[in-house]
Amino acid sequence: MPAISLQHVSKKYRVYRRPSDKLLELLTLKRRSFHESFWALRDISLQVEPGRTVGVIGANGSGKSTLLQLVAGILRPTEGVLSVQGKVAALLELGAGFNPNFTGRENVYMNASILGLQKSEVDERFATIEDFASIGEFIEQPVKTYSSGMFMRLAFAVAINVDPEVLLVDEALSVGDIVFQHRCMHRIDQLRRAGKTILFVSHDLQAVTRFCDRTVLLDHGRIVEEGEPYAVVQKYLEIFFERERRKKHLPGDDLPVVGRIDPSITVVNTIPHMDSRFGNGKARVHGILVLDGQHQVLNQVRADDIITVRISARFEEFVEHPIIGFTLRDHLHVEISSTNTSYERVKLPPANAGDYVTVDFRVTLPRMRPGSYSISPAVASGSIWEHDICDWIDNAYILTLLDTGLVYGMWKLEVEASYRITR
Ligand SMILES: Nc1ncnc2c1ncn2[C@@H]1O[C@H](COP(=O)(O)OP(=O)(O)O)[C@@H](O)[C@H]1O
Ligand SMILES: [Mg+2]
Predict the structure, then answer these.
(1) Whose CA is nearest to atom 5 of ligand 1?
(2) For the domain that residue 15 is a member of, what is the CATH number?
(3) Using CB atoms within 10 A as the burial measure, which of 22, 28, 391, 417 is most buried?
(4) What one-character-per-residue DSSP string does 253-291 give?
């Protein structure tokens, strides 16, 4: 039996133009309606098997929080059938079930008992919860004196430490400080490994790709894509990336231009690999190669090697401000780093239909963990803050980084350690 099951679930909100309209409607004993209907979710069917982690992504307002509140039982579906098996703990935007007049300690006991814990079980866990929340003396103060950050810490500390069978995580997580976020992610990962069912809303697409077994993409209240997280994240990027980026126009793209034309650079025309591709087609990635200092093609590299990533693009139309760049990812699709001509302050001249533009990126490889890495080349038009993707090819080039010594984590920091003994 699925842990979470939604069949054709829809959720309608009533939207009143003015607060007084709600009163008017009550005065007419609802014989006249003064509201408009807004369908936040439409015909959602979703099954989550026990022990699975399912990611939910989508733009603001696409219905993610509404979905979680339905599963949490805070909202009722307007249409459709919903069922959840097992004890549910939710990390939602509102610290569900907290009473503002009681102290943090009292709320922990109440909240945990709502979530099905005996008093003795809460006694056992209290120290862990208190420790997790780290709000110090405030634990003995009424919750109404808390900052929103403290409120959230305590709510999360309870939810995450009551051994839920089903855990719902809304992106509220991102409002905490970094240390707390890490602590939460670590705990969520433990629960995931312990076989709990998790519904995970996040705008951290890397976390979604890494943690989730499956991902659902919501758009305007409907599921528009569902499946393997990486593919769904790509779809999301394809649809929303540019939309989002346009909103955050930042200064700083008019930095001085460096870089030069190098006649020894030749057009490359091989694309060894292609996982997916998107873009408006005004230009196409024509080829990508990785070369060493002797112009030899490289598939295997070592830390500290100096390599050249050469990317050629062919322009199908006039593009006034071309940008060429790439993203380096590890085998888990985690982005290690990205760069492009605009970012490196190389201003490419306007390109005409039929032009080939080839760029060399000379890179000194950091001491990354040995293993396989991929390069995804892209060509775009605009500035680094605002541009359209003309062509993006995922994982076009695979590089193997040979083992040149132990690396803890993603890469070896440049460290000098010193010591002193004091007796
Ligand atoms: N209580 C509510 N009354 C009316 N509209 C709401 C209410 N809650 C959310 N909405 C609307 O429903 C849509 C989906 O909201 P939400 O589920 O919060 O989206 P997300 O979490 O993806 O940003 C939004 O357009 C939002 O304005
Ligand atoms: Mg939300």
Answers:
(1) 13
(2) 3.40.50.300
(3) 391
(4) TTPPPB----TT----------S-EES-SSEEEEEEEEE
**Bridge partners, residue 119, by sequence:** none
d(CA 146, CA 100): 9
Q: Is residue 190 part of a domain?
A: yes
Place of tokens 């003064």: 34
CB 188 within 8 A of CB 18: no
Q: Does 395 sit in the ligand 1 pocket, CB within 6 Å?
A: no
Neighbours of 412 (CB within 10 A): 16
Provide the pLDDT confidence category of residue 242 given band limits of 50, 70 and 90. Answer: low
pLDDT, tens only, 158-198: 888 888 899 998 876 655 567 777 778 888 888 999 999 99
Q: How many domains does the chain have?
A: 2
40 located within any domain? yes
User: Same structural domain for residues 20 and 138?
Assistant: yes
pLDDT digits (tens, 9 = 90+) for 92-108: 765 556 888 899 999 99
pTM: 0.62
Report which bound ligand comes closest to the CA of 17.
1
